[in-house]
Amino acid sequence: MDHDAPACGEIATTEEEAALVRAINLDRRNFGALYERYATSLYRYALHQTGSPQEAEDLVSSTMLAALEAWNRFDPSRGSLAGWLFGIARHKLAQHRRLRRRLERLLRHVVRVSGQASVDNPGPETEDILALREALHHLAPNDQEVIVLRYGAGLSTREIADALAISEAAVRVRLTRARHRLKRELGGE
Amino acid sequence: MSFRPSPSPIDDATLTSLLDRALGTGDLTPSQRRRHLALLAQHIERLEQQEASYQNVGERQRLVAGALLVLTAAVALSLWWLLASPTHPEVEAAADILAPPAPGSGRHLLITGESTQPVVGQTRRWTVEIWERTLADGLHQLAASATDSSGRSLAQYVQSGDAWTLHDGLEVDHGRGTPLGLPPTLATALATPGSLREVLLASDPDNVQIRQSGNQHILTITISPSATDRATLARELELEAEAVKALILTVRFVPSEQRLVSWEAAALDVHQNQHPLFAYRFVVWDVMAADAVPDASFTLAPATPSPTLDLPPVLSLPSGTFTRSSQHQENGAVRAIYVGPGTRVVQITVLPSSNQPLDLPGPDVQVLRTTAGDVQWSSGDTAESWPRLALWDDGRYRYDLSVLTAPPNGWTLADLSTIAEALAAWSGAIGQ
């Protein structure tokens, strides 16, 4: 089983990534190309992590702005561009979750609210997709995140490793474990 | 929704396909993308303006500060001699002229300077105008303003007793904050008779030549910097390492009239001894009554007054006392500069707390626990481990700190903790 090839083919190859970095270093106005390259992947990652299209959009926007601000600190020798970008997104997401938890605690004092996030307008989904979503919820959060980064954002193993600040071997272990668990949950094993 | 297992086994390919279908969908709408790109373009424009402004400031810093570095270095290089050697009577006579005006007296000085940079072959010129007086009650006041050769304001400095304020030209022009480096902060302040007086009094008598021309007495003081100081000077003046051979101070005065005729400071190039890298001289020295000095010279209003946020305090850190300059900004923030020993300059922007989560950009952000709360910090784009950037919020104010310059390992987490706690104490006092 090969986990290394990007699933959706939207993440830049190393050569494309290097060209993109050079272009932005040359003129920061080329940052729009980085946005076009990674916005969809970031959005899918954020969408599945937050469960809300609105929050996902905000997360894409704030991640891109933070990346623009911090661009001078990006060092290609320390990791991939995608890994760096998703590292920022994870940081933003953690902040977002802390804020949301505080907000939910506050709200629970006022009215009874469900703390469970819901995906807005998920659209019609087939039974097998619904079953898969259910199975995904049963995974450990770390494994869920690796699956979303791999199949939602289309990151390679190396990029996921950079984003999560773990080794590529650890990413492979998590992917294999998660897939095994999903197959079992879905009745395959 | 209840989970119902698939009736048939599932293989790898099917699972991958399912995952792609379930997770690999969803996208931003064209209007969301346009909005994001517009936001990024706006942000890029702001960053570029900010950087142009920084470069401008950097250019001005070097212009004004370079010459004054000669003075700073001279003070530093010769200060050790002060206690060890007697001062020559001629030097004492010149130093007396440079002493603050007697109560009820004032003076007006004009200082011009120029620098030549061998690398780019460019000569820069600037002027510092100084009004100084001592009121009848003994209060000493000094106002200095530096302009470039086109008349643009580079920096303004006002001192009244022990209090002082400095604005650099861009802030005054545009009413918004820009980072000041240490050099302009101290530069204008140092271009004063008082700083020259210190140099004279601290000079090694063996390095002072005295001659006479008519009624004028001429003092020439030669200072040979150490290798370290030469390297510092070369870096600040954008010269090759060790390019500065010597600093020469020349003072002409008429003892019988208590009058300074001229004063020059020059940094000589090791290769081109006849052509100073830096030259700096008095061209006007007028003495007058204190009430003839315009009062307005000593008034420097903040560019954007803020009625709600007062200035942060002068802080003391373990490794030395910090002095300050402050600038109100358009958004209600106060941007303060704290100057420490050596080349340390810390900028802190104080904003009313927004209750937003802390969001110091960058992947290597760490958290320092202090009694003032959690402080996010990072070493920025350096490979060093000291905190160059920091962000924290005490519930009343949010503090955005950046260390503009610091000697290697000259700024520590302990310093950061101290400054956070001192500001929290200040914030608490404001709230009472």
From TrEMBL, chain A:
Domain RNA polymerase sigma factor 70 region 4 type residue range list: 130-182
SUPFAM superfamilies in UniProt: Sigma2 domain of RNA polymerase sigma factors, Sigma3 and sigma4 domains of RNA polymerase sigma factors
Keyword tags: DNA-binding, Sigma factor, Transcription, Transcription regulation
Gene Ontology BP term (one): DNA-templated transcription initiation
Residues in RNA polymerase sigma-70 region domain copies: 34-102
Recorded GO MF terms: DNA binding; sigma factor activity
InterPro entries reported for this sequence: RNA_pol_sigma-70-like (IPR039425), RNA_pol_sigma-70_dom (IPR014284), RNA_pol_sigma70_r2 (IPR007627), RNA_pol_sigma70_r4_t2 (IPR013249), RNA_pol_sigma_r2 (IPR013325), RNA_pol_sigma_r3/r4-like (IPR013324), WH-like_DNA-bd_sf (IPR036388)
PANTHER family: ECF RNA POLYMERASE SIGMA FACTOR SIGL (PTHR43133:SF52), RNA POLYMERASE ECF-TYPE SIGMA FACTO (PTHR43133)
Similarity comment: family membership: Belongs to the sigma-70 factor family. ECF subfamily.
NCBIfam families the UniProt entry points to: sigma70-ECF (TIGR02937)
Protein name in the entry: Sigma-70 family RNA polymerase sigma factor
Native organism taxonomy: Bacteria, Pseudomonadati, Thermomicrobiota, Thermomicrobia, Thermomicrobiales
Automatic annotation (TrEMBL), chain B:
Transmembrane segment boundaries: 63-83
UniProt keyword terms in alphabetical order: Membrane, Transmembrane, Transmembrane helix
Domain of life, source organism: Bacteria
Protein known as: Uncharacterized protein
Organism: Thermalbibacter longus
